[in-house]
Amino acid sequence: MKALEKLSDLVGKYMAVIVILVAALALLSPQTVSFLKTSYVNPLLGLVMFGMGLTLKPADFKVVFSRPKDVLIGCASQFVIMPLLAFLLTKVFQLSPELAVGVILVGTCPGGTSSNVMTYLSKGDVALSVGMTSVSTILAPFLTPLLTLLYAGQRVEVNVVSMFVSIVEVVLLPILLGFVINRFFHSFTQNAVRVLPLISTTAIVAIVAAVVSANSAKILTSGLLILVVVILHNLLGYAAGYMVARLLKLDTAKCRAISIEVGMQNSGLATSLATTHFAQYPLATIPGAVFSVWHNISGAILANIFARTADKADQH
Q1: Is a pLDDT exceeding 70 seen at residue 70?
Q2: Which residues contact 189 (CB under 8 A, 6 or more apart)?
Q3: With contact defined as beta carbons under 8 Å apart, do 204 and 268 qualify?
């Protein structure tokens, strides 16, 4: 168990590097990971969400009731800024409908699970980050389909009810199951949680590899455009999230949490929804896969910048 824990810590620490290397392998030599099929995306995402549920405790929801204003500002920013940015970027870069729906799906998804770790590393408000992730994930079955319909419905057919059911099955139910198991078998889950980074990273890497290898030829022809759009979407999300929190006079730790939470999306869910509901548009899966790679890199860099500014502020 100790060896597994050490391996898990190592994998968690170098997650961004591992994801980049596997994505590069899947892109340049797709046959090496061709055993990973896109049909595995939903079960793998369910596994990641189950892991998230195992880490949740009733105390994590305390912030929702003790500081509802902070959570409301954060979640409203999440579901206003990112979908709108996604829509505007698809217009500015005149993306094809299949790429556009992929970018919009990333924008309409809730906060990413690794945002809590990045907030901790940035010396931000971790309780607020966890609260925002939890609330935005609970709201996702309702808001993600409706926002996708609003922003992508003119270009592609969006089945709101079917998307709602998918998000409940792939996200909410696994989280709820993990939460219940943690509640009643806490001593067991305390040990299991120690190897979660290994399981979650393996699942995310497998999702990226499956999507990238299945679409490697198309990525090589339009990859640069997708990368530019994804990077802009993510960086503008960080900046806008921070500015909104600052304008509403929240303290620096809260600003950091909201910035990271808004900029980092559950891109695995975007990939899952694209695979399930927009299978006729193969390229729709790519923005989510690219976002999964990129936001772990940018999140780590931003967390480092925030932590350094926090250290300098403490010294004065």
Answers
A1: yes
A2: 54, 181, 182
A3: yes
**Single-letter amino acid, residue 289:** A
CA atoms within 13 A on the CB side of 56: 28
Position 273, amino acid: L
Measure the CA–CA gap between 119 and 302, rounded to whole angstroms: 10
E-assigned strands of 39-135? none
Residue 135 φ/ψ, nearest 5 degrees? -70, -45
Q: Are 192 and 54 in contact (CB under 8 A)?
A: yes
pLDDT digits (tens, 9 = 90+) for 195-225: 777 777 788 888 888 888 887 877 777 778 9
Cβ atoms of 260 and 299 closer than 8 Å: yes
Kindly report the pTM of this predicted structure: 0.88
Let me know: does 34 contact 213? Beta carbons within 8 Å: yes
Instruction: Tell me the C-alpha to C-alpha distance, in Å, between residue 61 and each of 58, 131, 132, 269.
Output: 6, 6, 9, 22
Written as one letter, the residue type at 200 is S
Q: Rounded to whole angstroms, how far apart are CA atoms 195 and 291?
A: 24
Q: What are phi and psi of 111, to 5 degrees?
A: -65, 150
- H/E stretch holding 181 reads helix 173-184
Residues 6+ apart with CB under 8 A from 45: 170, 171, 203, 207, 268, 269, 271, 272
**Which two tokens mark 126?**
């971790």
Burial 24-44 (b: 16+ CB within 10 A, else e): eebbeebeebeebebebbbeb
Instruction: Say what the pLDDT of residue 311 is.
Output: 63
Look-up: residue for tokens 């996604």?
Answer: 86
What residues have CB less than 8 Å from 78, skipping those under 6 apart? 110, 111, 132, 136, 241, 261, 262
The upper half-sphere exposure of residue 158, i.e. CA atoms within 13 Å in the direction of its Cβ, equals: 23
Task: Supply the DSSP symbol for 248.
Answer: T
